[in-house]
């Protein structure tokens, strides 16, 4: 075969060998047991044969004229040699490598290269072709064009690079069409979900969960759910059904491993990362919701429920019940204090004024104490389901949120996260919000929530008396005050 044909064949084999190698290695590492199939063994044997042919082709190409053509290197002379030196080197090598005088099986190929090198340095046509194309044979030796001998003529003319690419497209296009036809008409064996040994949908539930859902729809398993108040799980029918089913699944897992309940034993491995990313998504949702709810003076229930999701994710329980509290308590060593919060002080004031007028800027100052933390020591990392996954996880740190809302209408007044880098026993912070536009006595509910422990909250009700602004203050303008200052 000519050098061009060798290169063309090598390219065709590489288009199969390279991707097939990655697929075979991936299958060997991800599913070793699934490799014991006839198709995989056949593919592996063909891949080994292709590597053998690739090695043979590389050996053949290296001994041909296709490697980088440098006439000075072939003749073992420097680049500044004269014609006399070139002729002398050529004679010496030709006598040494002549097929009639040398027993080297590659002597003919080496002698041909020496002759081409001498031609490239002495023959005018060879010199012109070498300077323009890098070889004394001229343009016909270009490697870019995937050359191949034509079938209609016996001369040295070659097909263009476009024809070579058309052959590649025809060969691998036929392979692609064959694969599609096998997937369409080959039955379940070649379906995408079965071709890698998966045997079903990625989202298919296990048999126990499916059996429970069937029984749940026929009202046969409601009584089997322990420590669960079904009336507390509300929402649309399909959402309520899935939440109850997942809660039942959690309780069943607690029976087998109360102290070792972590996310990977409940969720499949591919969902582990999703579970760890939920608190980050919840942060974004809470920040956006606070701005929208506060601007529209909407119900604060959305914010409170969202903040209660933090400890639910941290403790791995969707419902705060006796079983969930027991599992949370079981994570603490014997003799440790139960997590508890208390509001030691909460005040509503307006800076520089003794009374609160409509639309005044009211400052809420709170002081909260962590009863489970010693006064002289910082709070330790919370004990959560994240402990056995990542000890440096951000949401193992106990954060406190303060929510203030009007007690009668539940209108959100403000919500913020307490900044406490030292995690001390007692925490103080302040929040500002606008007083109501009308006068009267308003009940302000102040609630402090933990982001790591279930049912760890503290609340206090404050009275905000909004009085009518005095008449003389209403008639006084800023211009009158400026005039009095000038006098």
Automatic annotation (TrEMBL):
CDD domains on file: DnaJ
Gene Ontology biological-process annotations: post-translational protein targeting to endoplasmic reticulum membrane; SRP-dependent cotranslational protein targeting to membrane
Example of a GO cellular component annotation carried by this entry: Sec62/Sec63 complex
TM spans (from-to): 6-25, 37-58, 164-185
Keywords for this protein: Membrane, Transmembrane, Transmembrane helix
InterPro entries: C2_domain_sf (IPR035892), DnaJ_domain (IPR001623), J_dom_sf (IPR036869)
Entry-linked Pfam families: DnaJ (PF00226)
Domain of life: Eukaryota
Molecular function as annotated in GO: protein transmembrane transporter activity; RNA binding
J domain sequence ranges: 70-134
Protein name: J domain-containing protein
């Amino acid at each position: 075969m000519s050098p061009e044909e060798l290169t063309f064949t090598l390219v065709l084999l590489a288009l199969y060998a390279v991707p097939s190698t990655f697929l075979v290695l991936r299958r060997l590492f991800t599913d070793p047991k699934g490799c014991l199939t006839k198709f995989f063994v056949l593919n592996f044997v063909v891949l080994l044969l292709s590597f053998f042919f690739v090695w043979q082709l590389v050996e053949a190409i290296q001994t041909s004229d296709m490697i980088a053509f440098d006439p000075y290197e072939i003749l073992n002379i420097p680049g500044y040699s004269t014609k006399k030196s070139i002729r002398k080197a050529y004679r010496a090598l030709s006598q040494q490598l002549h097929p009639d005088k040398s027993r080297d099986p590659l002597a003919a190929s080496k002698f041909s290269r020496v002759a081409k090198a001498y031609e490239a340095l002495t023959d005018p046509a060879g010199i012109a072709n070498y300077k323009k194309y890098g070889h004394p044979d001229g343009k016909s030796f270009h490697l870019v064009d995937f050359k191949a001998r034509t079938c209609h003529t016996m001369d040295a003319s070659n097909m263009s690079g476009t024809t070579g690419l058309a052959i590649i497209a025809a060969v691998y296009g036929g392979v692609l069409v064959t694969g599609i036809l096998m997937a369409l008409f080959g039955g379940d064996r070649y379906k995408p979900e079965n071709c890698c040994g998966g045997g079903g949908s990625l989202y298919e539930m296990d048999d126990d969960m499916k059996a429970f859902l069937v029984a749940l729809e026929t009202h046969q398993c409601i009584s089997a759910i322990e420590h669960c108040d079904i009336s507390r799980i509300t929402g649309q029918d399909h959402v309520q059904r899935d939440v109850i089913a997942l809660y039942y699944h959690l309780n069943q897992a607690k029976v087998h491993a109360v102290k070792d309940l972590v996310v990977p034993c409940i969720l499949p491995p591919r969902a582990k990362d999703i579970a760890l990313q939920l608190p980050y998504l919840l942060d974004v949702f809470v920040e956006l919701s606070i701005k929208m709810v506060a601007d529209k003076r909407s119900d604060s229930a959305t914010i409170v429920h969202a903040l209660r999701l933090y400890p639910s994710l941290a403790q791995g329980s969707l419902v705060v019940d006796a079983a969930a509290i027991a599992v949370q308590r079981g994570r603490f060593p014997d003799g440790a204090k139960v997590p508890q919060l208390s509001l030691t002080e909460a005040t509503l004031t307006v800076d520089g004024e003794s009374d609160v007028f409509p639309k005044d800027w009211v400052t809420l100052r709170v002081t909260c104490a962590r009863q489970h933390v010693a006064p002289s020591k910082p709070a330790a990392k919370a004990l959560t389901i994240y402990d056995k996954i990542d000890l440096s996880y951000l949401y193992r740190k106990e954060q406190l949120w303060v929510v203030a809302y009007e007690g009668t209408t539940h209108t959100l007044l403000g919500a913020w996260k307490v900044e406490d880098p030292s995690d001390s026993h007692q925490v103080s912070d302040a929040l500002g919000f606008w007083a109501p536009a009308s006068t009267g006595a308003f009940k302000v509910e102040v609630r402090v929530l933990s982001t790591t422990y279930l049912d760890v909250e503290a609340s206090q009700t404050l009275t905000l008396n909004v009085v009518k602004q005095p008449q003389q203050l209403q008639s006084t303008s800023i211009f009158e005050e400026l005039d009095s200052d000038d006098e």
